[in-house]
Amino acid sequence: MIEVAACGLFLLIFDAVLGSALWASLVLLEYPSCGGLVGMWAFGAIKWVFLHVFSMLLTDGKPQPVLRRLVGLLCLLPPVFESGCFLKASSEPYRGPSPNLTMLLLGPMASSLACLIWEKGLCGNGKMKKDSSKLDTRRLLMRTLKYFRPDTLYLIAAFGFLILGVICDTFIPLYQGNVIDMLSGKVLEAGFGYAVGQLVLVSLGSALFSGMRGGTFMCALARLNNRLKHLLFHTLLKQEVQFFDENNAGRLSSRLHSDVDRMGRTVALNANAVVRSTVKTFLMLGVMLRLSWELTVLTCIEMPLLAVVQNKYSALSKELKEQIQDCQAQNADLASQTISGIQTVRSFKAEKDELRRYQEALEQMRIAKRRSGIYSSVFLLLRRLVSLGIKILMLLQARTLISSGKLSIGSLLSFFLYQKPMSVNLKEILYCYGETVSTVGVISKVFSYLDRTPKCKEEGGLAPEKLQGRIVFKNVTFSYPDKPALKSVSMELQPGKMTALVGPSGSGKTTCVSLLKRLYEPQEGQILLDGEPLHLYKHKYFHQKVTLVSQNPVLFSGSLRYNIEYGLQDCSIEKVKKTANEIKANKIISDMENKYDTDVGEGGGRLSGGEKQCIAVIRALVRDPQVIILDEATSKLDAQAQHSVLKEILASGRTVLVVAHQLTTVQEADHIIFLENGVIVEEGTHSKLMAKEGRYYRLKEELFSQDS
Ligand SMILES: Nc1ncnc2c1ncn2[C@@H]1O[C@H](COP(=O)(O)OP(=O)(O)OP(=O)(O)O)[C@@H](O)[C@H]1O
């Protein structure tokens, strides 16, 4: 920063030297002028070459953009100023620039001021610039626009209507001025009816095309939102389970709904508004310049002033908007967690605590919104003050023009009719710019999810007709992001045998099951199914052949049948009934009011724990699995039902893995593996384990039963 300032200072000094040299030579050679306007522009061009080379020397060939801008302004401002003087002095002969100290200082001062406003006002502060470059705003916006490709026809139609509407809009004030001028003259002038007809025609055109533009844009936007949400949801569904551990459901749902909506809305509506306002601005500027260039210049002065104010506001509001968005996601998450866990909340009488937590989250959002409200009102005040100041100057200038006969009342009225929408257009462009910049954060977050490559291995192609179901864990080591869970675990699950994984809470049993179901990938070691690594099997085939029934199975709201057939395309009701018969669950289902069409409620809330477990076992068995994992899956069934389930499961030579806390609950198991702190500490048959160090295990079991 200091280096840039120093280089800028040297450039200003060099510019002053060049300017002084020019004036000194003119004085010495007794020339009254430097060759008029042409001379000024030529001197500007020569000065640019010198200053540019000088700036290259100062910065080792890489002058910063701000220095380039300064050089440009130093060379451009004096000839532009002289050109303005030439145009203004059209009635008197133009004498050309004359040497004086004011002129020598004015150029460098105005250039430095313009650079300063540009750097501090229009480009925002250093932090914002850094952010913007990091997020690469333009790249993100262009990428968002690319998603509109399938809606090209809609967009062409929308922009077509937009331009037609804008053209009609632009001519309304002009025709209004014409009509008023005619009214103030001869009322029954022959062209009066024609002028009124023109006014009516452009007004109708404006209304019709604006309506069609809005409708077509909304259609394109709805289609984009649909596509983006579908794509994002698809990408999210492909992510590994660890991703969902790290990103809570509330935040993901907020990205999927509000962020995608906001992203499409901002880009589409802002593109619409910017194009509309830009075309309108240029058309209006042309008409306004024709009416009065003095008043037009005053109108244009408002723009950079408003830009500076708007820019500061955008930088501040961007930060706040992100904060409010995070608060919203957090609030939604908190409320949905409390509502879905209302039974737990009630049983612990934690309503007050939950209310307090929610109140605290709401309070955070209120503070952020209050700050946003204060910024917005200060911004509005400044904007109004700037507009008011300019308006007063314009009225003074208009009085002079009318009294000198350069402007008619009708033209002044037309001008004012243009001036208001003109500044609205400029404000709209600035607002869209600010809004787009503040949405860049949201867009980049959505894209970061869209671009995320799941950390899962690619799907294999194995789907053998015959599967034995032999599972081998080979030195498997696994850690969660913040915690090691399994250390070099090796075990074998035999087909037709029931293996039990026993151990205290947190010993790593569920982790083994999750790895076997490929919800996570081991960091070291391998898990083999019939000698092949799990990831080599086809995804769908693998999950049909290796099924899991957990202690608290997840059911979706819908009928029993829907839950049992979940994810299967060709499952007949006969097969479902047969499976239910085999595990003796037909009585449970036939007792229900609508049998297989009974609605289980949200999360299976209308069923008892045992009923849910029964449905989950049927759901697993209709898939004809070869490996079945029961993670305390029958803990809520009565002894007889448990026996029927185990008998059926073992009958067809399947590999069965049972997870339990206590040795006493896995007496039927052929092989027991005892896990502790993620390490296998003992294995063998039930009787062997009970006999071996019996006292040790009995003591442990007493401890576990107290835990559970
Ligand atoms: N998603 C997770 N993120 C981080 N750590 C986890 C996660 N799931 C489990 N852990 C940790 O990993 C270790 C093993 O957990 P695991 O659920 O496998 O134990 P477990 O034997 O099944 O316990 P329980 O019998 O209580 O179900 C524990 O210390 C647990 O805190």
TrEMBL record:
Coiled coil feature spans: 306-368
UniProt main location, coarse: membrane
Transmembrane parts of this sequence: 35-58, 152-172, 192-209, 374-394
Topology within the bilayer: Multi-pass membrane protein
Molecular function per GO: ABC-type oligopeptide transporter activity; ATP binding; ATP hydrolysis activity
Domain ABC transmembrane type-1 stretches: 156-438
Entry-linked InterPro entries: AAA+_ATPase (IPR003593), ABC1_TM_dom (IPR011527), ABC1_TM_sf (IPR036640), ABC_transporter-like_ATP-bd (IPR003439), ABC_transporter-like_CS (IPR017871), P-loop_NTPase (IPR027417), Type_1_exporter (IPR039421)
Domain ABC transporter: 471-702
Keywords: ATP-binding, Coiled coil, Membrane, Nucleotide-binding, Peptide transport, Protein transport, Translocase, Transmembrane, Transmembrane helix, Transport
GO cellular component, one term: membrane
Superkingdom of source: Eukaryota
Annotated compartments: Endomembrane system
Lyase as UniProt keyword: no
Pfam annotation, one family: ABC_tran
Assigned protein family: Belongs to the ABC transporter superfamily. ABCB family. MHC peptide exporter (TC 3.A.1.209) subfamily.
Protein name: Transporter associated with antigen processing, subunit type t, teleost specific
Originating organism: Amphilophus citrinellus
